[in-house]
Amino acid sequence: MTLILSQTDWNELCQQTPQLRYPSLILDNYEVLLSVPERLGRGYSRHMELLPGVRLSLYNWEFHWDWSLKAPVHDHLVQSLVILSGAIHDEEVYPTLGGQRSYFSGSGISPSYTSRYERSQRLIFVEVHLLPEVLEELFSGMRGTNATLLKLLLKRNDWKVSFFPIVTLGMRQIAQQIMIAPFFGTARRLYLQTKVFDLLELQLQPILSDQTLCYPPPGRKSDTIARIYHAREVLASRLENPPSLFDLARQVGVSDRTLQRGFRDVFGTTVIGYLTQQRMKYAEQFLRAGSCTVAEAANRVGYTHLGHFAAGFKQQFGITPSECLAGKSPGR
């Protein structure tokens, strides 16, 4: 059974939990250490204000139970998150974070969501919160910045936009350096300031390089384009059990008609077309690896009808799934 806590429940549990001592940690006077509630698991989080408007949090958690955290609609700062170990699963709004998927969000209003944490997994991650004016200042010193994109990221009384950049080797290395930062006192604070801004720039690079976001197609607003990208990420994370078109549109805050048109404009295919392409792409990888049968590959990507799976696979690759499993190259 999964334990479900509200944000208020979680906050109260943390406040009531005695702060344990960790001999391996040497804390500076600008850090706050919070222990995981004993009834849930073990571990800690470290929180520090590196600069006015720049807050860094480091997490090292392990839970005894599967549990979920229900967060309400709330005001949201700019946020960055890179997971080094484990994963955070979302039940509706966001894709699973962890592995090759990081998180970068602008400011504004966050929808309600439910994050799910698995028992017995070590969850280690770096999280940064920024005031909007700090991101604006960071943007001014970066190459390729664009006023349209900055306006998209910095909102107040509107839904925020979120991106899920692929975790590069550079991002992972910097996140690891942040977790085990050398030095102490002022020297460590200065070191962490530099590393945090390096990490943010790496996360922003793929967003800045996306010309569709910076220069949306005629008749398409940047905010709508961002929501279309968010919808694509949701689909990619839920290939086995994707949401309906209506539910997907509701999750990202657009109409189903806008979602359909947006997919055609941005990705050159329909929502169903994109979902099929991705399912077949992963199925081909499973078959090439020889790690499963045709039926198992079909099931892994959400197909229960082998005939439909085989027809879709041959249409995309020009060969049957069985021929792919036998090592034959794509026909086109």
Write structural notes for this entry.
With 332 residues, the protein is an alpha+beta fold. The chain contains 13 helices and 14 strands. It has helices at residues 7-16, 132-140, 147-153, 169-179, 185-208, 211-214, 222-237, 245-252, 256-267, 271-289, 294-300, 306-317, 321-325; strands at residues 3-6, 31-35, 41-51, 54-63, 67-71, 74-76, 78-85, 87-90, 97-98, 103-105, 108-110, 113-117, 122-130, 162-163. The strands form 3 sheets. The chain has a 7-stranded antiparallel beta sheet with strand order 2-3-4-13-7-10-14. Helix 4 packs antiparallel against helix 5 (185-208), helix 7 packs across helix 9 (256-267) and helix 10 crosses helix 11 (294-300). The longest helix is centred in the middle third of the chain and has 24 residues, at 185-208. The chain is globular, with a radius of gyration of 22 Å. It starts with a strand and ends in a 7-residue tail after the last helix. The model has no long low-confidence stretch (mean pLDDT 87).
Topology of this protein?
Elements: E1 3-6, H1 7-16, E2 31-35, E3 41-51, E4 54-63, E5 67-71, E6 74-76, E7 78-85, E8 87-90, E9 97-98, E10 103-105, E11 108-110, E12 113-117, E13 122-130, H2 132-140, H3 147-153, E14 162-163, H4 169-179, H5 185-208, H6 211-214, H7 222-237, H8 245-252, H9 256-267, H10 271-289, H11 294-300, H12 306-317, H13 321-325
Parallel strand pairs: 1-5
Antiparallel strand pairs: 2-3, 3-4, 4-13, 5-12, 6-11, 7-10, 7-13, 8-9, 8-12, 10-14
Helix pairs in contact: 4-5, 7-8, 7-9, 10-11, 10-12
